[in-house]
Write a structure and sequence with these properties.
Length: about 130
């Protein structure tokens, strides 16, 4: 009944619309895919410690450190970053002195080979702690 070109044009238009719909669905799926979360490094964590604004966030950071970074890293570069985090925590004016002493004791128990470094870092940081 209709001309050959009418049917050809209809099939081409349906194909193009199908491709556009498929492309649209794929773009939506790509946009809603969860992004890979970069693991928290000691340097990132140390910058969070230095940016503390109140005692509630300091307590959360303290608890996170105890649960994730209690044992010392094995390589020297990360070990120095770990000691810097401990120093930053101990220097923070938002943590109570009792919490810092408890932190030192937990760290010394968890890392008996590094007791001297931990004691030295925490003591120095507590001396340099801002007075309230």
């Amino acid at each position: 009944m209709y001309n050959f070109y009418f049917y050809l044009l209809s099939y081409v238009m349906v194909g193009v619309l199908g491709l556009l719909a498929t492309l649209f669905i794929v773009l939506i799926m790509l946009a809603t895919m969860p992004k890979k979360v970069k693991p928290l490094t000691l340097l990132d964590f140390n910058s969070q410690i230095k940016a503390l604004k109140d005692s509630d966030s300091a307590q959360k950071i303290y608890n996170f450190f105890i649960s994730h970074f209690l044992s010392a890293p094995s390589d020297l570069g990360h070990f120095k970053d770990w000691l810097d985090c401990i120093s930053s925590l101990a220097t923070s004016s938002f943590l109570r002195l009792e919490a810092i002493i408890e932190l030192r004791q937990k760290l010394e128990r968890a890392n008996p080979m590094h007791q001297d470094e931990i004691k030295s870092i925490v003591t120095t940081a507590m001396k340099n702690r801002p007075t309230e």
